[in-house]
């Protein structure tokens, strides 16, 4: 059974958590992407809770995770998630993230690799790492630049969140019908107030600084041996090998690629059973 709890993070705010399973078991923490909330991992919570302590959250500033000044640089979000991990006293932890959540996982892995069992990055490019330059030049990824413009996205999207978000579900998912109307309504609710909508766009506004920071990591000579599972939807654009090269260049040595077949960008909703099968096998192998 999924239980909801708010966890206070110092004086910064609270993070909404959805939890399933016993805290005595090994932990897996899920971080969602844009434009979603914790419910993108609802199916995986149900599957994972049978043998793990599974937690999914609303990222700071989104939905019920209320923050005065929500962090938007991925390294800063990772530091906030680390505070949550300590507050929950998670043990034997694997941290998993999709889309922007995966970018946060990359930062978390570099900062706190010695404290976790493994990491999972799902269907996202890491700013500053190959094939970042190719991705941002791709006209199909027009929204990266649009979302980074100050104020304009909020002006255009406010009151039209449902229609705007639907464009992405319908365009980059192989099975958009598996994102139910009820869950879509909850996503819209999570970005309905001005601060939450701006938080989501701020993630994109931070990409240039994220890229600079990640390039510095790649040039530091640091070696990370903590295992990383990199997952990609079969029908997502780009070759998985290029993403693996970028991650390897950043010093990560144990990278395990996995394609999810008949799947687009929103893999935890499109193919939850197959995604969970791959995640479970990865955790059991490390």
Mean pLDDT: 97
Strand order of the largest sheet: 1-2-4-3-5-6-7-8
Q: Are there runs of 5+ residues with pLDDT below 50, and where? A: none
Oligomer: single chain
What general outline do the C-alpha atoms trace? Answer: globular
Using DSSP, what is the number of strands?
8
Rg, Cα atoms, Å: 17 Å
User: How many separate domains make up the residues?
Assistant: 1
Number of helices: 13
**In terms of structural class, how would the helical and strand content be classed?**
alpha/beta
* SSE run: EEEHEHEHEHHHHHHHEHEHH
End-to-end distance, in Å?
27 Å
Q: Which bin fits the share of residues in helices? A: 40-55%
Task: Write out the CATH superfamily name.
Answer: Alpha/Beta hydrolase fold, catalytic domain
CATH topology: Rossmann fold
β-strand amount: 15-25%
Give the SSE layout:
Elements: E1 3-9, E2 13-20, E3 27-31, H1 42-48, E4 53-57, H2 74-88, E5 94-98, H3 100-112, E6 118-122, H4 132-137, H5 143-148, H6 152-157, H7 161-172, H8 181-190, H9 194-205, H10 207-218, E7 228-233, H11 240-249, E8 255-260, H12 267-270, H13 272-285
Parallel strand pairs: 3-4, 3-5, 5-6, 6-7, 7-8
Antiparallel strand pairs: 1-2, 2-4
Helix pairs in contact: 1-13, 2-3
């Amino acid at each position: 059974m999924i239980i909801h709890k708010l966890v206070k993070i110092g004086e910064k705010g609270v993070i909404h958590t959805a939890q399933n399973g016993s805290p005595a078991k090994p932990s897996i923490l899920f971080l969602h992407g844009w434009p979603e909330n914790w419910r993108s991992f609802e199916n995986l919570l149900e599957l994972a809770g049978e043998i793990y302590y599974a937690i999914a959250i609303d990222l700071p500033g989104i939905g019920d995770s209320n923050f005065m000044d929500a962090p938007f640089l991925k390294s800063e979000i990772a530091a906030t998630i680390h505070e949550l991990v300590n507050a929950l006293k998670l043990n034997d932890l694997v941290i998993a993230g999709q889309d922007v959540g995966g970018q946060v996982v990359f930062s978390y892995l570099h900062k706190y690799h010695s404290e976790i069992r493994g990491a999972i990055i799902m269907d996202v490019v890491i700013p500053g790492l190959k094939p970042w330059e190719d991705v941002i030049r791709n006209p199909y990824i027009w929204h990266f630049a649009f979302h980074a413009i100050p104020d304009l996205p909020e002006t255009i999207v406010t009151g039209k969140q449902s229609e705007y978000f639907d464009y992405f579900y319908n365009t980059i998912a192989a099975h958009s019908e598996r994102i139910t109307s009820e869950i879509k309504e909850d996503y819209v609710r999570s970005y309905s107030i001005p601060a939450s909508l701006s938080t989501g766009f701020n993630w994109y506004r931070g990409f240039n600084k994220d890229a600079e920071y990640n390039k510095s990591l790649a040039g530091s000579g640091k070696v990370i041996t903590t295992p990383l599972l990199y997952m990609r939807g079969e029908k997502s654009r780009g070759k998985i090998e290029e993403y693996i090269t970028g991650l390897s260049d950043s010093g990560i040595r144990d990278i395990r690629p996995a394609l999810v077949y008949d799947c687009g960008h929103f893999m935890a909703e499109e193919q939850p059973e197959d995604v969970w099968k791959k995640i479970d096998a990865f955790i059991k192998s490390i």
